[in-house]
Design a protein that fits this description.
By secondary structure, this protein is of the alpha+beta class. Helix content is 49%, strand content 21%. Bound molecules: adenosine-5'-diphosphate (ADP).
């Protein structure tokens, strides 16, 4: 049973009032957390880039100071006017971190490159032949009157040099760098690696946070090598990103819980409202329905008791009226009880083979007096035999009676009811039995044809106010038919009349129209 449009609107507003701000807040929370995480990540990437550049510079400075330290004797010798051999001998005496000495006279310097480190020209060139894999690195040497003689220096293995210098660069030179904020603190939380041909040197075992890692390529005599700078796995940026991930997950779960809780809360409220509505419908519809036959019976009994009736025909008329109202009461009480059982899921159907011809004939015969009373033309068209169906005879009889009752109630001037039972189905489909009850009453608009099978639904036509009803009859018929594996069909035109058809599957392997019904079996609906 549907709750009122107003209640539905109120519940919708409550639902939206919770779900909309919750999703908005969750979305905003997630967006802002991600933005903050992005800013921290970008900051960390920039810092790693800056450190990478500082490290690259520091390696060049380290090379320059090594060269300056080692070349000093050769410089002195050159200034003293020594020749190439003297210079070479002075270089050889102080090889230091390098491999072997080498002197390049001024005329041969054309193929060599120059790098300015701290405004000092550093001469370098890639080695070949015997010196493949090595680089020449040296400084300019001047003669007695200050003129440049050439470049004096050494062949160097760049990988070895970098490997030896990486720790001093990172631990001493960088913190001492005046441009680095925070001294030793500036390199805390950083993972540094040297990557080059055939070499991979890690200063700490921590691989670092790859998302903000930065690879700075080295140049000059260190060409082919790169320094990778990354935040260590417990650096603030990593904690921030973990925290943001947790926060986003938490916000997402909370929003989901809120939405699901609202959904179930509203569903529960709808159910409660429906139940409240069912209760009030039962009280208003059913009590009204019960009162009318009881009042009529009381009136008839009182009249009979007072023996005020003049003729036996009158007596007969009152007894007839009592019987008719009692039958109506009985049908109503049956409907209410069955409805309550079906609602509680406690209705038990007694299934047995049913002879539809007999069932329809009996139901029609028992209803005929009521139709006759109201001046209806009543036609019953039954074949000699029909396939047997398995069903609860009492429940199926109740279906036929409910439909006959409706046909009678919703007819105005054209008073004719027709009952037809027939076999349906062909070779392709399983056989079934159809029982149609037609009237030439007010009819039902296409819009209402679905809803009338819902409980307590009564169509707002002029007749509803005159015709008694609890809105249970069709809902019960529908539920009973489903429990039997069948269904109910409706064809109706407003102002023309309606035909309700009960379709029941024929029992498999059952003989047509058995003479005697067999012992009943039980089956829960
Ligand atoms: P009730 O008759 O007690 O109101 P029902 O479940 O039998 O409840 O019917 C539901 C509604 O369907 C009725 O109120 C009526 O508006 C409509 N209805 C049922 N049967 C017919 C019919 N044969 N012709 C026209 N309208 C019908």
């Amino acid at each position: 049973m549907a709750i009122s449009r107003f209640s539905r609107r109120v519940l919708g507003i409550i639902g939206l009032g919770v779900v909309f701000p919750a999703t908005l807040l969750a979305g905003l929370g997630i967006y802002l957390s991600l933005r903050i995480s992005d800013v921290v990540t970008a900051q960390s990437s920039r810092y790693n880039l800056y450190i990478g550049q500082q490290v690259a510079e520091a390696f060049e400075q380290e090379l320059l100071s090594s060269l300056q330290r080692s070349v000093a004797p050769a410089e002195n010798v050159a200034r003293g006017g020594a020749g190439q051999d003297g210079i070479l001998a002075a270089l050889a005496a102080n090889t230091g971190d390098f491999v072997s000495p080498h002197y390049v006279p001024l005329d041969d310097l054309a193929g060599y490159d120059m790098l300015l480190v701290e405004h000092q020209p550093l001469i370098y060139a890639r080695g070949s032949g015997d010196h493949a894999g090595h680089w020449f690195t040296g400084l300019l040497l001047r003669g007695t009157d200050g003129q440049v003689l050439g470049a004096g220096g050494w062949w160097m293995d760049p990988g070895r040099f970098l490997a030896r210098q990486i720790r001093p660069v990172f631990e001493d030179r960088l913190p001492q760098n005046a441009r680095m904020y925070g001294g030793i603190e500036s390199t805390r939380g950083l993972s540094i690696r040297l990557i080059g041909p055939g070499r991979h040197i890690a200063l700490s075992p921590d691989p670092g946070y790859p998302r903000t890692a930065y690879l700075e390529p080295l140049t000059g005599p260190f060409d082919g090598f790169s320094v990778r700078i990354a935040a260590t796995s417990n650096a603030p940026v990593v904690w921030a990103s973990r925290f943001v991930r947790l926060l986003v997950l938490f916000i997402g779960i909370m929003a989901l819980v809120l939405v699901v809780a609202t959904f179930f809360g509203l569903r529960y409220t709808v159910r409660q409202l429906e139940l409240a509505q069912i209760k009030s419908s039962i009280v208003s519809n059913v009590s009204h329905e019960l009162k009318t036959p009881i009042a009529l019976i009381r009136l008839a009994v009182e009249t009979l008791e007072m023996r005020r009736l003049s003729s036996p025909e009158d007596t007969e008329k009152f007894l007839h009226s009592i019987s008719r109202e009692a039958m109506r009461l009985n049908q109503l009480v049956d409907n209410i009880l069955d409805f309550a059982r079906l609602e509680a899921g406690k209705k038990v159907f007694q299934f047995s083979p049913v002879n539809v011809v007999d069932l329809v004939r009996d139901a029609a015969d028992s209803f005929r007096p009521r139709l006759d009373d109201q001046g209806f033309r009543f036609e019953v068209e039954l074949p000699a035999e029909l396939p047997v169906v398995r069903g609860d005879a009492a429940a199926l009889t109740q279906c036929v009676l409910n439909l006959l009752d409706s046909a009678m109630k919703y007819s105005r001037t054209r008073r004719a009811v027709r009952v037809v039972a027939a076999e349906l189905g062909n070779h392709a489909s399983a056989p079934s039995v159809a029982i149609s009850i037609s009237d030439r009453g007010i009819g039902i608009s296409p819009r209402d044809q679905k809803s009338i099978f819902e409980k307590f639904v009564r169509i707002e036509t002029g007749l509803v106010h005159d015709v008694k009803g609890a809105g249970l009859g069709l809902s019960l018929v529908d539920q009973i038919m489903r429990a039997h594996g069948g269904h109910i069909e409706l064809k109706s035109t407003v102002g023309e009349g309606s035909t309700f058809t009960l379709v029941l599957p024929a029992a498999r392997d059952a003989p047509a129209a058995p003479a005697e019904p067999q012992a009943p079996e039980q089956a829960a609906s």
